[in-house]
Design brief:
Radius of gyration: 32 Å
Structural class: alpha/beta
Strand content: 15-25%
Strand order of the largest sheet: 12-11-10-13-9-14-15-8-16
Shape: globular
Number of helices: 24
Largest sheet: 9 strands, mixed
Helix content: 25-40%
Number of strands: 22
Distance between the termini: 36 Å
Bound molecules: adenosine-5'-diphosphate, magnesium ion
């Protein structure tokens, strides 16, 4: 038997248990050894029966004086009762529906019992304790020690796992530590074999913690090595050199109807510097909704085009692609450097704002007659061939692999010199630092910390059911002033269809009820692109007063005249997402409002909603989200492939930073990790599971 022996070949497991173990992700011996306890119960001290009190976890050791089984009177319950005696006293132990216990307890024989004590009418007794017979060869596994409690599944109990894992532990002696010995010493980590033993069967809680710390550090360390190695590998690729045209850039910036914020200037400058190097830029531009990311990307695109390359903008939805097209066209309008701008989405294709047939547009892109192409993620990845793409901006999709980028570049006629376009990914999702350093650890990050001047803070209010009417009145007042409003309906179900239905129902209710004198619009994900566009255009033109929508309206929509964002069922959304919704309003000089309608008055909801009222910016909310909901359920951490212990360490920024520093040192010494074979394999595996590319 070795580490990769399938579990069904192990005595006492077999196909039946193997099936159950699979649910825990356990397939081979190694997986069992690395199935770590989620907690421990302290049964270490063997107590004298005379000293036992109610409600404690204890181990006792004594002789079975008496044992019998009976049926409970009322329910169909088998009860086993035993009396145990040690030198000090006797105690009763009781088991329910566990007939097999009888086989493990023989009168006149000595036994260890570990369990919780309760107070019954005849005094203190042990309920459902785990029995174990002391053996000369091994120490106890279930009693008289710190006992591991594992993540369980139906039919696989902690007790069973303890039994199996204890027997397999000797195999751990064959595992070589992937971490070099000197490193383990220097960082005062527990060596692998000791750590494996101590995480399962620690001699003290401190030992268990020390073991866990080693594994946490190890996992985070691999994540860091994987991220930094990926980053280094990226530096070995080629990208076009985009020389910054300082004159042109100044002219463009001066032509804008506003002054760039310091953050915008700084970010743009970093991006231009990155693009001057012949290695691929891999930068994420992170900034709250409305912080002005588009113009930063446009500055970079302008330089790429000026240097003779094509640029692409990818948006997550058709509406946003349309909007980017409009914004970018306006930014470059009427200037001597007017680039030709194409738009390509599932339902429309335009060149310089004039309709053009798709095949024709694609032909022009291929010939290099389109300088900037704007489209949805899907369209651009799938079927567009560029002549010489140099720069890609991608909105709200955090990762865009080297492979995908290479494919964009390869399609052109300059395929021979295989270059990879520079990448700028933009996000309004505030990313906590721990995540920036792990799942995005291979990217460079620029932050837009400040908002453009003159924006008013959106007034946020939590609206319980009884205040709904009041909120509606306030909305009407705003609409009467000529303003517009959004009303978002919750993700009733994850299905588009039901979500659409909920919004449609609400649309009918509101348009025949409280808002019958106003123009209402409806927007949901089941609508065709063109329908959606019509609605959004009507909203932009002010022909709709109140837009009822599902969350499709979430990212990036820019309607400065809108001053109210109402979210129904607000508790169902993450804080970061609610923050996004709120960012749809307050984009102009008017005072804006965000109403969070919620029927839940639970403590948790109240806390989260209040965080939204108080928070100064998205980053604060991201930290809140991380605390309240955990990283796993958000930010795509679970989908990121990050291992469990690393995930559990996401609140420990110091650990992450320390691991990153150490990883850096390793790669400085040996970029390919050739010296450390096992470590290298681990890291390469991690690069794959974490989808670093
Ligand atoms: P986001 O970062 O959410 O994508 P946008 O790029 O859509 O933000 O910008 C939001 C709005 O702010 C746009 O109307 C844009 O023209 C405007 N804007 C951008 N930068 C500034 C600035 N420095 N001062 C004033 N308005 C700005
Ligand atoms: Mg945007």
């Amino acid at each position: 038997m070795n580490l990769s022996t399938p579990v069904e070949e192990i005595k006492r497991i077999g196909p039946k248990y193997a099936g159950k173990l699979k649910k825990l992700g356990i397939k081979e011996v190694r997986d069992l050894l690395f199935h770590f306890p989620s907690r421990y119960e302290d049964y270490a001290t063997v107590k004298s029966i005379a000293d036992i009190k109610p409600d404690e976890e204890v181990t006792i050791e004594g002789k079975v004086v008496h044992i019998n089984e009976r049926m409970a009177k009322r329910r169909r319950l088998k009860i086993i009762e035993a009396v145990i005696e040690d030198r000090t006293d006797t105690i009763k132990a009781v088991w329910f529906n566990q007939s097999y216990i009888k086989k493990q307890l023989n009168t006149e024989e000595s036994v260890l019992l570990a369990g919780k004590t309760s107070l019954g009418k005849d005094g203190v007794y042990l309920s459902n304790p785990t029995p174990e017979v002391r053996s000369m060869e091994t120490s106890p596994v279930h009693t008289a020690r710190i006992v591991p409690i594992y993540p369980e599944t139906r039919g696989v109990s902690s007790k069973w796992l303890r039994y199996i894992i204890y027997k397999l532990l000797p195999i751990a002696q064959n595992i070589e530590d992937p971490l070099p010995e000197e490193f383990v010493k220097e960082k005062e980590l527990m060596p692998l074999r000791d750590a494996l033993f101590n995480i399962h069967f620690p001699s003290s809680i401190e030992k268990a913690q020390e073991a866990r710390r080693r594994f946490e550090f190890e996992e985070i360390f691999y994540v860091q090595l994987a991220a930094l190695k990926t980053k280094a590998e990226m530096q070995a690729e080629n990208s076009p050199k985009v020389k910054t045209n300082v004159e042109l850039t100044k002219k463009f910036v001066n032509s804008l109807p506003f002054t760039l914020t310091d953050s915008q200037k700084k970010a743009a400058w970093r991006i231009l510097k990155d693009m001057e190097r012949p290695i691929p830029m891999n930068r994420m531009l992170e900034g709250d909704v409305g912080s002005g990311k588009t113009v930063v990307a446009a500055t970079a695109a302008l330089n790429a085009v000026d240097a003779g390359f094509q640029a692409a903008f990818m948006a997550p939805t058709e509406i946003l692609a349309e909007q980017h097209n409009k914004t970018i066209t306006e930014l470059f309008d009427d200037k001597e450097y007017s680039p030709s701008i194409g738009l390509l989405t599932g339902s429309s294709s335009k060149l310089n704002n004039e309709k053009i047939k798709k095949p024709e547009l694609k032909e022009k892109i291929k010939k290099g007659e389109v300088d900037m192409l704007i489209g949805t993620h899907a369209v651009i990845q799938k079927d567009v061939k560029f002549k010489n793409i140099g720069f890609v901006t991608i909105d709200e999709q955090h990762r865009f692999g080297v492979g995908q980028r290479a494919a964009l570049a390869k399609s052109g006629s300059k395929a021979k010199n295989k270059t990879i376009p520079h990448l700028l990914s933009m996000t309004a999702t505030p990313i906590p630092r721990s995540l920036a350093l792990t799942i995005y650890g291979d990217l460079d990050i620029s932050l837009l910390k400040e908002m453009p001047k003159g924006r008013k803070k959106v007034i946020t209010k939590i609206v319980p059911p009884k205040k709904r009417k009041e909120a509606f009145e306030l909305i009407k007042k705003e609409l009467d002033k000529g303003r517009q409003a959004f009303c978002i309906f919750p993700l009733v179900e994850v299905s588009d269809k039901l979500e659409a239905k909920a919004a449609t129902d609400e649309y009918e209710k509101l348009s025949s009820g409280p808002f019958k004198d106003y123009n209402l619009g409806l927007l949901h994900g089941r609508m065709k692109g063109q329908e959606k566009d019509e609605i959004m255009n009507k909203m932009k033109e002010g022909k709709i007063d109140l837009l009822i929508s599902t969350s499709v309206v979430e990212v990036g929509i820019d309607i400065p005249n809108a001053t109210i964002m109402m979210v129904d069922g607000a508790e169902r959304f993450g804080l970061a997402q609610l923050h996004q919704f709120r960012g749809r309003v307050g984009r102009d000089k008017h005072q804006s409002y965000c109403f969070l309608l919620t029927e839940s008055d639970s403590e948790g909801t109240r806390k989260r909603m209040n965080a939204l009222v108080k928070a100064k910016n998205g980053f604060e909310l991201a930290e809140y989200d991380l605390k309240f909901r955990g990283a796993g359920d958000m930010y795509g951490v679970r989908q990121s492939g990050m291992p469990d212990l690393a995930m559990a360490s996401l609140d420990n920024v110091e650990l992450i930073e320390e691991a990153r520093e150490e990883a850096n040192k390793f790669l400085e010494k040996d970029a390919k990790l050739k010296k450390w074979e096992i470590l290298k394999n681990k890291v390469e595996e991690m690069q794959k599971t974490m989808h670093f590319e």
